[in-house]
Design brief:
The complex is a heterodimer of chains A (306) and B (300).
Chain A lengths: L1 H25 L7 H18 L4 H23 L4 H21 L4 E3 L2 E3 L12 H4 L4 H23 L2 H11 L1 H6 L4 H27 L9 H14 L4 H18 L7 H15 L30
Antiparallel strand pairs in A: 1-2
Chain B lengths: L1 H32 L6 H19 L3 H25 L6 H22 L5 E2 L9 E3 L2 E3 L1 H23 L1 H11 L1 H6 L4 H27 L1 E2 L3 H16 L4 H41 L9 H11 L1
Antiparallel strand pairs in B: 1-4, 2-3
Classes of the chains: A mainly alpha (306), B mainly alpha (300).
C-alpha cells in the first residue's frame, strides 16, 4: 500500500512542477528555469524544517515566497528575450542555481548532528515527516491538498481578467500590447507565480525524499517540467495533471514490467501522442467540460526568435 | 601568467572550433525549420558509439571509424526528422520539441542498453608530434579541429552561395512562404538540411571524441547544450556567428578552467551566457528581426 501512496506523492510534486511551467507557458514563454526554482524551494524548505525546526507549512510557504522573489528578479532581465534565446537564458540560470548548490556548504549543529547542505554530498536528513510521526497517507493527503489548492487557484485565475490577459499575451504579443497590456509586467508576473508554485513543489519534494542533491535538478528535470504542459496542452490545468499521470504513472511506473526496454517505448509513446495531438492532450478539440468557456484554447507555439 | 593566457586561448580556440561546428548544425536546422531539435546531440552520440564499437570489434583505422560516426549520426538524424519533425505539422513547434526530447531519452536508453557501463575508449590520432610555436604548444588533434572547422565553414559558405540547393535553403530560411510559392520542395530541402546538419555535427563529434580518447553516453546532452549555447552567443541564423560563438565559448571556458577550476568554469560560462543573452539579444554577429526586415526592404 505504501508503494501506491509513494506514487501518489511523486505525482503530486511533479504536478506542481508541471503547473509552474504551465503558468509561464500560458504567456507563450518556454522557461527551462523551473528545475532551478524547484531546487531553491527544496533547499529553502529543507533548511527551514531541518536546520531551524519550523513547521512544514510555513517552511514551504517561505520556500515558495523566496523562490517567487528570485523568479521575479530573474524574470526582469530574462524576459527581455523570447523564443529560443529565452530557452537558453533560462537554461543557463537553472544550471547556475544547480552549481550554486553544488558548491554550497552551510551546516548547523542540531542535537549533536550537523545538518544542512554539504556541497556535492547534498542535503541529508530532512526528516520532518518521520520525526513528527506523520504516516505515509498523512503526507500524501497533505501533498494533494496543496496541489488541489494550487489547481483551484489557477482554474479560478483562468476565469478572471488575469487569465484572459495571460492568454492574450501568449496568443499574440503585438495585439496584446496594442490594447494597452504591459508585456513585461504580465510575463514577469507569470514567472513570479510559476516560481512560487515551483518553490512549493520543491519544498515538498525535499521532505518526501529526505535527501536532496544538486544532480537531481539538472536539465533533465527542467525538460520534464516543460514537457508536462506541452504534452497536456494549455486548454486547462487538468491537461498538466493528465500528462503527469500519463508520463509518471503509465509510462514510467506502468511499463516497469518491460524492464530496460521501457524507455524505448516511453519515447515512442510520447512521440505518438505529440503526433496525434500536436497542441497537447487537452489542447484543441478537448472535451467540452475541460475547456475554457467560449474561447477554447489556441495552440501556442515557440515564437520565431530570429 | 600571460603565457598561460595565450596557451589557454590557443587550446580554447581549437575546442571552440568544434563547438562552432555543433552550433553550425543547430543553426542550419533552426534556420530552416524554426524548431528546436533536442535530439541533435544524441544522434551524434549514436554515431560516436557506432565508431567506437567498430574500433573495439575490428580494430579498424581512423577512416572507417570516421565514416561509421558520420553514417550513424546521419541515419539517426533521418529517423529523428521523420518522426519528430516531418510528421508533426509546421506550426506546432512545441510538439516537435517535446517529441525530440522523448527521442533523446530513447536514444540514450538504447545506448545504455547496448553498451552497459560508463566509459568507452575511442581511437586517437597517435603518432603525430606536438607542434611548437615559440613557447606555445599546440596539440595535433587541435590543429586538425581548427583546420577542419575552417574548411567546413568555407565549403558551406560557398555551397550556400553557389549551388541550387544552397539557394533553396536560403530562401526557405529567409522567407518560407516565398520559397513555397516559387516551387521549392520544402519537405525535401528541410530533410536534406537536417541530414547536412547531422553530418557536420558528426564530424565535430568525431573530432571531440578522438581528442578525448574516451566517450560516455552523456556526450549527447553535452553536445546539444554546447551547440545551443554557441549558437545563441553568435546570434541565430548566421553561419559566421555560429563559428564565432563557438570560438568565444571555447576561449572563455579554457581560461576559466585554468584560473578558476572546473566548478568556476561552469559557473563563469553560464553567468556570461546569461548576461550576453540579456544584454545582446541579437548575438555577436546576429541581426534583429527589425534589422532583417529593413534589409529585405532595401533589397526590394
Amino acid at each position: 500500500m505504501d508503494f501506491y501512496f509513494g506514487l501518489l506523492q511523486i505525482f503530486g510534486v511533479h504536478t506542481l512542477l508541471g503547473l509552474s511551467a504551465y503558468v509561464v507557458l500560458l504567456t507563450g514563454q518556454v522557461s527551462m528555469a523551473q528545475a532551478g526554482f524547484y531546487a531553491i524551494g527544496a533547499y529553502t524548505a529543507g533548511a527551514g524544517t531541518a536546520m531551524f525546526g519550523i513547521h512544514i507549512l510555513p517552511a514551504i510557504i517561505v520556500a515558495g515566497l523566496v523562490t517567487a522573489v528570485i523568479a521575479c528578479i530573474v524574470g526582469f532581465p530574462a524576459l527581455r528575450v523570447k523564443g529560443l534565446m529565452l530557452v537558453v537564458a533560462t537554461l543557463a540560470f537553472g544550471e547556475m542555481v544547480r552549481l550554486f548548490f553544488f558548491n554550497l556548504t552551510w551546516q548547523v549543529d542540531r542535537g549533536g548532528e550537523l545538518v544542512g547542505p554539504n556541497g556535492a554530498e547534498g542535503f541529508r536528513s530532512i526528516r520532518y515527516f518521520p520525526e513528527h510521526g506523520w504516516e505515509v497517507w498523512h503526507v500524501t493527503a497533505f501533498i494533494w491538498a496543496v496541489v488541489i489548492v494550487v489547481m483551484v487557484a489557477l482554474w479560478w485565475v483562468d476565469r478572471t481578467r488575469a487569465g484572459a490577459v495571460l492568454r492574450a499575451v501568449g496568443h499574440d504579443e503585438t495585439a496584446a500590447q496594442s490594447i494597452g497590456l504591459n508585456l513585461t509586467a504580465v510575463k514577469v508576473g507569470a514567472m513570479t507565480a510559476g516560481g512560487f508554485i515551483a518553490g512549493l513543489g520543491g519544498g515538498i519534494y525535499a521532505h518526501t525524499v529526505t535527501h536532496i542533491e544538486h544532480g537531481v535538478f539538472g536539465v533533465l528535470l527542467a525538460t520534464f517540467a516543460i514537457a508536462y504542459p506541452i504534452l497536456g496542452g494549455l486548454g486547462s490545468v487538468f491537461g498538466t495533471v493528465i500528462a503527469v499521470l500519463f508520463i509518471q504513472g503509465f509510462l514510467i511506473e506502468g511499463l516497469r514490467f518491460l524492464g530496460d526496454w521501457r524507455s524505448l517505448l516511453f519515447g515512442a509513446l510520447i512521440v505518438l501522442a505529440m503526433n496525434l495531438r500536436p497542441t497537447g492532450l487537452l489542447g484543441e478539440h478537448a472535451p467540452r467540460w475541460f475547456r475554457r468557456r467560449k474561447t477554447g484554447s489556441e495552440p501556442l507555439e515557440l515564437k520565431e526568435a530570429n | 601568467m600571460l603565457l598561460d593566457l595565450v596557451q589557454n586561448t590557443v587550446d580554447g580556440l581549437a575546442v571552440g572550433a568544434a563547438y562552432g561546428l555543433l552550433a553550425l548544425g543547430f543553426t542550419l536546422i533552426f534556420g530552416v525549420m524554426r524548431r528546436l531539435n533536442i535530439a541533435f546531440g544524441p544522434s551524434i552520440m549514436i554515431g560516436i558509439f557506432a565508431g567506437a564499437w567498430l574500433h573495439a570489434e575490428w580494430s579498424v583505422g581512423m577512416v572507417p571509424v570516421f565514416l561509421a560516426v558520420l553514417a550513424g549520426a546521419v541515419i539517426t538524424a533521418a529517423y529523428v526528422e521523420r518522426i519528430s519533425f516531418a510528421a508533426i505539422r509546421g506550426d506546432a513547434a512545441l510538439a516537435s520539441m517535446a517529441s525530440s526530447f522523448a527521442i533523446w531519452m530513447q536514444l540514450e536508453e538504447a545506448v545504455a542498453r547496448v553498451f552497459p557501463g560508463r566509459t568507452y575508449g575511442f581511437p586517437t590520432f597517435d603518432g603525430m608530434p606536438m607542434i611548437e610555436i615559440g613557447p606555445v604548444l599546440l596539440r595535433p588533434e587541435y590543429l586538425v579541429m581548427l583546420v577542419t572547422a575552417a574548411a567546413l565553414v568555407a565549403a558551406l559558405q560557398w555551397g550556400l552561395a553557389h549551388t541550387r540547393f544552397g539557394l533553396e535553403l536560403r530562401t526557405l530560411a529567409d522567407r518560407p512562404e516565398a520559397a513555397r510559392v516559387s516551387g521549392v520542395n520544402v519537405a525535401r530541402v528541410a530533410f536534406l538540411t537536417f541530414l547536412l546538419a547531422a553530418a557536420i555535427g558528426g564530424i565535430a563529434g568525431f573530432l571531440i571524441a578522438a581528442a578525448d580518447g574516451q566517450i560516455t553516453p552523456k556526450i549527447g546532452l553535452w553536445a546539444t547544450i554546447k551547440g545551443l549555447i554557441a549558437m545563441v552567443i553568435g546570434g541565430l541564423g548566421s553561419l559566421r556567428g555560429a563559428l564565432i560563438g563557438g570560438l568565444v565559448l571555447g576561449v572563455v571556458e579554457a581560461n576559466a578552467q585554468w584560473f578558476l577550476g572546473a566548478a568556476g568554469r561552469e559557473m563563469t560560462t553560464y553567468a556570461l551566457l546569461f548576461l550576453a543573452l540579456v544584454l545582446l539579444p541579437a548575438g555577436l554577429a546576429g541581426r534583429t528581426e527589425a534589422g532583417a526586415r529593413a534589409e529585405a526592404e532595401r533589397r526590394l
